[in-house]
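Hi support team,

I submitted a single chain yesterday and got back a structure, but I'm not sure I'm reading the token output correctly. Could someone confirm the output below corresponds to the sequence I sent? I've pasted both exactly as they appear in my results page.

Thanks,
R.
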Amino acid sequence: MPRLSDTMEEGTILSWLVADGEQVSRGQELVEIETDKANMTYESDQEGVLAIVAAEGDTLPVGAVIAQIGGGGGDPGGGGDPGAPASTAAGNEDGPASSGTDSTEVSPAKDPPEGERVKASPLAKRIASERGVDLHTVTGSGPGGRIVKADVPETEVTSPPAGGTTAQPDTGAMPPPDTGVTSPPEAGLAGVMTAKGESTVVELSRTQQTIARRMAESKATIPHFELQSDVDMEACVALRAELKSLAKDGIPTHPVPTYNDMVIKACALALREFPTANSSYRDGRLQLHTRVNVGMAVAADADEPAGGTLIVPTVFDADQKSLGEIARETRALAARVREHSITPPELGGGTFTVSNLGMFGITSFTAIINPPQAAILSVGSLEPRAVVHDGEVQARNTMTITLACDHRILYGAPAARFLARIRELLQAPTALTL
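Hi R., thanks for writing in. Yes, this is the structure output for that exact sequence:
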């Protein structure tokens, strides 16, 4: 099991992309693995015959043997483990016989009885299982004919998938209306058992389980406190309108920055001025980071039964990048998250996080700190509000930002000055364009 992220401790085999006993080449996609951050495809670093050890669905710690590659010109991966299955032994035999008919006869047949192995993404397989769709009847639109989420047709589920959802048995009808006559105890119990209707059990992905564990640890171990401030966004609105007009006039520019891009840039500049906010708490000490890497929370697969996942890709050295560069990078990162093509290096190394729910009309909220970071900024909706400006009540574009802090790192006054600096930069956004 390869280590595919800096925090990965174990992984789950989602699907083997090469059948047991087949010849593989160096650099060929070998297996899809679910890590604590994303689903990743691992490429073979050897040539030879594949002998699968770990089955699809198995969860193993980093370093555990999941397969061996031998024969066919490759070095034996496991050195002839005496406890290995017959297919592994066949794959480790020297000479051409290891890739001939003998190896095929010894190896167990892993392909489905319908014939050729189905090439599909893990998400497509899960959706097909839930909808009762046979992927052998689906034509893939992905690279190399691979089946993706959009290819799976809408089909009514006729039976629950194996090992998946489980419906509670129908134990009786709801009790009749109260007529003044006492019903037997059994009728009341049946009503209680069916009051919520049928229930289904939805298994969380490994990424969701990791998020749940880390967020629980954050709330249980980090002494949070929150600060909130309203930002006059009139200048940012004017700046974005000007950048839009330049793009319409055909002047070469980066993608027009969003308000969230402006927030990321403002946070990056403020973090450079307040290095304590750009630090981590470890073993009773502070680690001050020299690079300002701002993570942005991106929702993926929000329409899934389990609610999807929250992935945080990183904009590295955000304080040194122009607003246009940040705009181009955030769009590319968000697209890769939703396409499940994001890589572990793009998900690590963050020193601060921005979470934005303003596009959903949320005025304000408090996000949970992503450990071991010192703080996280929550961004609400930008909307016209009645405020006093120059002694008059006016409708001004206003946005609420909330800073959640680790009190072991940031105290009230320094955190307030840091948040005030973010507000100042957003209210006078010319500095963001430098």
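A quick pointer for reading it: The CA atoms of residues 325 and 384 lie 29 Å apart. Let us know if anything else looks off.

Best,
Support desk
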